[in-house]
Each structure stands twice: as C-alpha cells, then as structure tokens.
C-alpha cells in the first residue's frame, strides 16, 4: 500500500472530522453510512475509486469511480489518492482532492474503507480520524446478508466469507465498535458517536480565543 497523506487539516475555527467505517464485507457499513448521511445532509461521503466491476445498480461517481487498472495505477503515481489498498483482488483508493476540499470547507467526511485504509488515515491524521468497526451478529447472518444482497456470485460471496475472520481480527484498532444486529439501533449508536465526536474540544479551536476573551486576556468580544 502507498499513500500520500497530508497532516491534520485546520479550517479556521472548526476542525472537520473523518468518520471511518470498516467491517467484514456484508456487515452493513455501506447501508449505515448512507442512512447516516440521509439524516445528516451536511456530511460528505468519500466516493472511492475501484478497479472492480460495478454491481447491478451501482452508479459511476455515486457508489464508486470505476476505473481500469492502468488508470488506477496512473493515479497512484500522480499521488492522487489519500490512501489505497488491494482488497479482494481489486484496487480501491480514496481520491485526495474531494476529501481535502470538503475538510478545508469545514465539512465532516464519511469513509467506507477497509482496515488498511483506516490504519493509513489514522496514522497520518490522528486528531481528525474517528474509527468505527461494524460487527455482524454472527458469521451465519453475515453470509445470509451477502447472499440476500443478491449482487455477487456464490464464488465472490465465498471469497468474502473467507476473508471475514481476518478483517474482524482488526476490530481492536478502532475507537468504537457497533454490533449491527438491529439496524435502527446500530444507526442510533452511529449518530450518537458522530454527535459526541463533533463536540470534542480539539475540533473547536475557536474556544481558545473565546476563553481568552472570557477571562480578560484577549479582545472583549469573540464571535464564533
Ligand atoms: N442490521 C441489519 N439487519 C439485516 N440486514 C442488514 C442489516 N444491515 C445491513 N443489512 C443488509 O445486509 C446487506 C449488506 O449490507 P452492506 O452492503 O451495507 O454491507 P457492507 O458492509 O457495506 O458490505 P461491502 O463491504 O461488501 O460493501 C445489505 O443487503 C443490507 O441491506
Ligand atoms: N482501503 C480502502 N478500502 C476500500 C475503499 N473503498 C472501499 N473499500 C473497501 O473494500 C471492500 C470491498 O468493497 P465492495 O464495495 O467491493 O464490497 C470493503 O471492505 C470496502 O470498505 C478505499 O477507498 N480504500
């Protein structure tokens, strides 16, 4: 894996956060992130690039940027990805420009990426990244979800089940773990994490000036 990451991003008085969701394939992170964004339209979804073929119904530029392997590797060479990795025999990467623009604009960004991507983002932007791991209730239900999704061949489902244990092995690298048994409860927990993380002191650099003014050490008035 190779990546070209910038350091922590400061946006005036508000630090955006990078909400990273990972899970074994089929545990529900895509569905959860889309519903979270529907409830919080100010969030931005990081649309990844991939060399895997589109599934039925997937739209280029909305679900993924679908690319040839040559085009993907050329973008790697240009330093166009925040991070990239090989997952299930295909390349996946986070395009850098849209994420940087959103963060600079003070917007929070949601990532649906694997443990390699989560680790890369956390290493380079430790103050900005919030990592959440989604667990399925059981491997039997995980297989059922992958099968019922009805978008992959039996061979692909088996390949993803074979990788499930190794993906789950990274669960303890994450800040939060959500058991996605009942979907509504899992979504509620995800929303609670987002709202609490948005309140963290480190994301509000304006507080320093405010407290200075409050205690008489700065200008009389500080507008947030
Ligand atoms: N709590 C839940 N109960 C039952 N079904 C669920 C639940 N959460 C998600 N699903 C269903 O499970 C399937 C897999 O979900 P989803 O595509 O979101 O998984 P994913 O983790 O993003 O997988 P991938 O890594 O392959 O993209 C979908 O059909 C989704 O509707
Ligand atoms: N490291 C990255 N992993 C990514 C990225 N985009 C998606 N993914 C992960 O790949 C698998 C498979 O996804 P699928 O859509 O083919 O089911 C899944 O774990 C995704 O989270 C990325 O940009 N970087």
UniProtKB/TrEMBL annotation:
Cytoplasm listed as a keyword: yes
Binding site for ATP: 23-30
Gene Ontology, cellular component aspect: cytosol
Pfam families tied to this protein: Guanylate_kin
Enzyme class: transferase
EC number: 2.7.4.8
Domain Guanylate kinase-like: 16-195
Subcellular location: Cytoplasm
The keyword Plastid appears for this protein: no
Main localization of the protein described in the UniProt heading: cytoplasm
Superkingdom of origin organism: Bacteria
Segment forming the signal sequence: none
GO molecular function, one term: ATP binding
UniProtKB keywords: ATP-binding, Cytoplasm, Kinase, Nucleotide-binding, Transferase
SMART domains, per the entry: GuKc (SM00072)
Catalytic activity: GMP + ATP = GDP + ADP
Gene3D superfamilies: Guanylate Kinase phosphate binding domain, P-loop containing nucleotide triphosphate hydrolases
Chain's role: Essential for recycling GMP and indirectly, cGMP.
HAMAP family, per database record: Guanylate_kinase
Family the entry assigns: Belongs to the guanylate kinase family.
PANTHER family: GUANYLATE KINASE, GUANYLATE KINASE-RELATED
Protein name: Guanylate kinase
Species per Swiss-Prot/TrEMBL record: Marinicauda salina
Lineage: Bacteria, Pseudomonadati, Pseudomonadota, Alphaproteobacteria, Maricaulales
